[in-house]
Amino acid sequence: MTEDSLLNHALVRLDEAAAHLSIDPDVIEKLKYARETTKVRLMIRMDDGSRKSFLAWRCRYDDTRGPTKGGIRFHPESTADEVETLAFWMTFKCAVMNLPYGGGKGAVQVDPRKLSKAELERLSRAYIQAFARIIGPDRDIPAPDVYTNSMIMGWMADEYAQIVGQAEPAVITGKPIALGGSLGRGDATARGGFYLVRHLAEDCGLAESARVAVQGFGNAGQHIADLLASDGHRIVAVSDSEGAVVCADGLDVALLLEAKKQGRSVLSTAGQAGHQVLAADQLVAVDCDMLVPAALENMIHEGNAGTVKAKLILELANGPVTPEADKILAGKGVVVFPDILANAGGVTVSYFEWVQNRQGYYWTEEEIHQRLRSIMEREGRAIWTIAGEKQMPMRTAAYVHALSRLAEAIEAHGTQNFFMS
Ligand code: GLU
Fold first, then answer.
1. How confident is the model at residue 31 (pLDDT cuts 50, 70, 90)?
2. Catalytic residue from among 69, 93, 105, 311
3. What average pLDDT does this structure show over 224-242?
4. 316-354 pLDDT, tens per residue?
5. Atom 9 (ligand 1): residue with closest C-alpha?
6. How confident is the model at residue 421 (pLDDT cuts 50, 70, 90)?
7. pLDDT at residue 420 above 60?
8. Which residues touch 282 (CB under 8 Å, ≥6 apart)?
9. 188-342 in CATH: which number?
10. pLDDT value at position 3?
11. Disulfide: which of 13, 168, 266, 407 matches 27 by Cβ 3.0-4.6 Å?
12. Distance (Å, rounded) from C-alpha 340 to C-alpha 348?
């Protein structure tokens, strides 16, 4: 692990939080490293008959508070460092929400857009064949992440059932409803962020009809645009991996969603309904009240944080703001709702799915929404209060909140043997 690794950057947040608590140094020692990261090479048969191999990982970062939980990402630039960092964030995210889970994450280094559906299915099944001994409903529970979805979770659940010889729906979340998925999981990440913003809007002075820019238009980005637009806000700019569009009077969200549904970029809506082309790297600098990074890590950095005009940032992506950018934003008085709180709606409804699978009793969508809302409001309010009392950014407050829960659990386990925690 180099000095400059993503994990080392993420650990800055752990140190910041620890400085505000009297924590046993053993706790920090335990949380500084991933407990286990397994790397494999998946070999699959391509449609043309050739064989191709892909690097894949599963990291179980820390399981003190329960089985490790976290998605599987399919991305051409995934690395072991990224997987461990994402698993570190999952550890804190689950603690922030008080879910009975530790943190994990997985990835395959692949561009899934270059695979046929059959190749994608073989790759997904190969992942489960490789990691069947690591995952399990009481051990490590995967879910979707960037470029993976419910269809992939369905194949993975099916592969796992074949390996263990019986249906085990609680081994993976984000499944299709027909295979034991939960209602309300599809938009849960965005919906959690939406409930959080609605609950704290008055406290942070957000206008009733706020102007919002959304970076990234995948699952989280599309749903947050839809939810906010339906609640009277104006989506003034959005971007995806191919480009961005802007309209000061508000973009036509239905038009954008339709383009995505047809497999087109948001850019293809330029020229319609007043949508104008915007350079994608200008999205963070758009004149708006709230900025929603919903793409990848490190999108708001030292080089562009100074250009942010929004007064509020809702981090639906994991790790979109670097520690250096945090300082610049704090200096400008920008409030950041941090990823480990803001995007925790996804893993929270994953938890509901796991609970329903284990009970064999399924809840209505309304029950899911109501439970999600109450947890987002409870933990969001607690973190807002810590931030106010200790005069610290929301991110530090979220880490303080999570770290005190993690420390309590680590200490309760005893001090003799960390590996068998
Ligand atoms: N991949 C999502 C996240 O980063 C969801 C994880 C889950 O549902 O386990 O929070």
1. very high
2. 105
3. 97
4. 999 999 999 999 999 999 999 999 999 999 999 999 999
5. 70
6. very low
7. no
8. 244
9. 3.40.50.720
10. 72
11. 407
12. 11
Under the banding of pLDDT at 50, 70 and 90, the label for residue 33 is very high
**Any ligand 1 atom below 6 A from CB of 318:** yes
Of the chain, the percentage scoring pLDDT greater than 90 comes to 96
Q: Comparing C-alpha atoms, which of 296, 300, 284 is closest to residue 238?
A: 284
216: left (phi over 0), alpha (psi -120 to 50) or beta: left
Tokens standing for residue 328: 């610049």
DSSP letter string, 343-361: TTHHHHHHHHHHHHHHHT-
pLDDT of 18 > 60? The answer is yes
Atom 7, ligand 1: residue with shortest CA distance: 347
Residues 6+ apart with CB under 8 A from 274: 247, 249, 251, 252
| Cβ atoms of 159 and 134 closer than 8 Å | no
CA of 285 to the centre of ligand 1 (A): 28
Ligand 1 midpoint to CA 350 (Å): 8
Cβ partners under 8 Å of residue 126, min gap 6: 42, 43, 44
Using most ligand atoms within 8 A of CB, pick from 60, 61, 189 the residue to mutate for ligand 1: 189
Location of each CATH 3.40.50.10860 domain in the chain: 35-179
Domain 35-179: CATH superfamily is Leucine Dehydrogenase, chain A, domain 1 (3.40.50.10860)
**Which part of the chain has CATH 3.40.50.720?**
188-342
- pLDDT of residue 419 exceeding 70, the answer is no
CA-based R_g, the chain, Å: 21
Task: Tell me the residue type at 165.
Answer: G
